[in-house]
């Protein structure tokens, strides 16, 4: 499983997005746009899940804001630190 | 002032709603699930009365439930069922108060959160887990989803949370702070409670009698929710009857003044350590019943007894008890078959740790 596939699976399962499948999340679509409907609490949950699953901390807003734009940006952030 | 029960919403091991509770009362049993718990000594099987809250999705959009855990879902479903039963789902509910009782709180999330603090350190705790671990999460979500802005109270007490919650609810109504109160209790099963049961009753996988005296079925851990819509009698007479009195105290200091001409629903479930004390406070041949064989050992179990009492008021019947509800040397008259309620009131009695007691008396409206 690629990092992108794993991230999509984590997002759907950890955020209880029962009405969407991991495959339906596009790599470049905004995580916090209308389709997924995520909010700031979800952002903190994603930070927690990335730490849990990849051992990589997103330490502050400066790191988090660009990293949490999409699956592409989040995967790139993780790959650069593995 | 009489306090009417206008609606009831229950879920537990017996099923979901008052119709399924009545079915379990008639059948004299509920279905027991088996939970497998992994331990360092291998897997253990623990019986439990588990509740299914899936029906909540017929009241609330699925997206609005995604951050809400099983504990709060049970409470929410109990509330919606009570409001539906009171025919208050789609009407202006006016100024409503909310009181939620719990013995354990949201145990699954609390223990999961503690585990993550121990293993990961607190900067990396799940915010969803944290927000679901606090005891007042159920009352908060009920208030948010029902858009109720009246007084909101969470009561956490192992044995007396239901009595305490009803005491507050009745006081709010008597003071006319609110027009109605949504009051009830919720507790959930978690594997740590299951492991506790295993150590207490079933270590070595040998079938043991509860407290060496009774069937262990009385001590099977339960989970579920029970909620009631209460209002002042002058505003709505109810077939479920009315709440005549709510009393709390300490029996070691002042004894217990119990009502006369009553059937007693005993809150013996194998956990408070007081199950063999009920007999000493009841008069010779007092009519007694216990229903924990239907909902299990659960701190807010008294709420189910109140629901059964209210259903009894409506039907004019005292439902048959578990066969051996409490330690009974023959002084008490266990209700073995459904009986005509007649003019009797029903007293739901709970004895707790440290000499605490609580009872709630219900009577039929037409007596």
Task: Kindly describe this structure.
The complex is a heterodimer of chains A (82) and B (367). Chain A is mainly alpha-helical and 82 residues long. Chain A has a single domain (3-79), classed as Non-ribosomal Peptide Synthetase Peptidyl Carrier Protein, Chain A. Chain A has helices spanning 3-14, 40-54, 61-67, 71-79. In chain A, helix 1 (3-14) crosses helix 2 (40-54) and helix 1 (3-14) packs across helix 4. Chain B has helices spanning 18-27, 70-85, 107-120, 127-133, 137-146, 161-174, 191-201, 251-254, 278-281, 292-295, 301-315, and strands at residues 3-12, 15-16, 33-39, 42-49, 96-102, 152-156, 180-187, 221-222, 224-232, 242-250, 262-266, 287-289, 317-318, 333-334, 339-340, 345-351, 356-363. In chain B, helix 2 crosses helix 5 and helix 3 (107-120) packs across helix 4 (127-133). In chain B, strand 3 and strand 4 (42-49) form a beta hairpin. Chain B contains eleven helices and 17 strands. Residues 207-215 of chain B have low confidence and may be disordered. Chain B is globular and about 60 Å long. Chain B has two domains: 3-232, Thiolase/Chalcone synthase (Peroxisomal Thiolase, Chain A, domain 1, 3-Layer(aba) Sandwich); 242-363, Peroxisomal Thiolase, Chain A, domain 1 (3-Layer(aba) Sandwich), CATH 3.40.47.10. In chain B, strands 1, 2, 5, 6, 7, 9, 10, 11, 12, 14, 16 and 17 form a twelve-stranded mixed β-sheet that branches. By secondary structure, chain B is of the alpha/beta class. The chains are: A mainly alpha (82), B alpha/beta (367).
What topology emerges from the helices and strands here?
The complex is a heterodimer of chains A (82) and B (367).
Chain A: H1 3-14, H2 40-54, H3 61-67, H4 71-79
Chain B: E1 3-12, E2 15-16, H1 18-27, E3 33-39, E4 42-49, H2 70-85, E5 96-102, H3 107-120, H4 127-133, H5 137-146, E6 152-156, H6 161-174, E7 180-187, H7 191-201, E8 221-222, E9 224-232, E10 242-250, H8 251-254, E11 262-266, H9 278-281, E12 287-289, H10 292-295, H11 301-315, E13 317-318, E14 333-334, E15 339-340, E16 345-351, E17 356-363
Parallel strand pairs in B: 4-8, 5-6, 5-7, 11-12, 11-16, 12-14
Antiparallel strand pairs in B: 1-2, 1-9, 1-10, 3-4, 7-9, 10-17, 13-15, 16-17
């Amino acid at each position: 499983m690629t990092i992108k596939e794993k991230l999509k699976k984590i997002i759907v399962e950890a955020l209880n997005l029962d009405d969407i499948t991991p495959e339906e999340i596009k790599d470049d679509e905004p995580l916090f746009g209308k389709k997924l409907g995520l909010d700031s609490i979800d952002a903190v949950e994603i930070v927690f899940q990335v730490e849990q699953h990849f051992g990589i901390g997103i330490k502050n807003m400066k790191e988090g804001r660009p990293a949490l734009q999409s699956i592409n940006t989040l995967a790139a952030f993780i790959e650069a630190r593995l | 002032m009489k306090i009417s029960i206008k609606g009831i919403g229950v879920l537990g091991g017996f099923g979901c709603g008052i119709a399924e509770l009545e079915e379990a009362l008639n059948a004299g049993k509920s279905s027991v699930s088996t939970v497998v718990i992994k331990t360092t000594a291998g897997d253990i099987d623990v019986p439990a009365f588990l509740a299914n809250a899936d029906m909540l999705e017929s009241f609330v959009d699925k997206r609005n439930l995604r951050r809400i855990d099983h504990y709060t879902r049970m409470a929410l479903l109990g509330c919606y069922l009570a409001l539906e039963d009171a025919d208050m789902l789609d009407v202006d509910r006016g100024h409503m108060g909310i009181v939620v009782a719990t013995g354990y709180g949201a145990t699954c999330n609390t223990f999961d959160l503690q585990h993550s603090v121990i293993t990961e350190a607190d900067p990396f705790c799940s915010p969803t887990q944290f927000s679901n671990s606090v005891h007042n999460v159920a009352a908060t979500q009920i208030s948010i989803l029902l858009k109720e802005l009246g007084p909101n109270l969470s009561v956490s007490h192992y044995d007396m949370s239901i009595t305490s919650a009803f005491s507050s609810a009745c006081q709010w109504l008597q003071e006319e702070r609110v027009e109605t109160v949504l009051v009830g209790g919720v507790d959930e099963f978690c594997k740590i409670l299951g492991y506790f049961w295993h150590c207490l009753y079933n270590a070595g996988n040998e079938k043991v009698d509860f407290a060496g005296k009774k069937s262990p079925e009385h001590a099977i851990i339960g989970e579920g929710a029970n909620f009631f819509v209460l209002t002042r009698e002058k505003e709505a007479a109810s077939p479920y009857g009315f709440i005549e009195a709510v009393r709390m105290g300490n029996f070691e200091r002042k004894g217990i003044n119990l009502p006369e001409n009553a059937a007693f629903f005993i809150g013996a479930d194998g956990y408070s350590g007081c199950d063999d004390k009920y007999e000493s406070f009841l008069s010779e041949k007092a009519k007694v019943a216990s229903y924990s064989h239907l909902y299990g050992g659960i701190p807010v179990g008294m709420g189910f007894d109140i629901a059964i009492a209210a259903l009894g008021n409506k039907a004019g019947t005292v439902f048959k008890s578990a066969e051996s509800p409490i330690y009974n040397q023959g002084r008490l008259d266990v209700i073995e078959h459904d009986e005509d309620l007649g003019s009797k009131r029903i007293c739901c009695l709970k004895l707790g740790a440290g000499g605490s007691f609580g009872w709630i008396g219900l009577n039929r409206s037409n007596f």
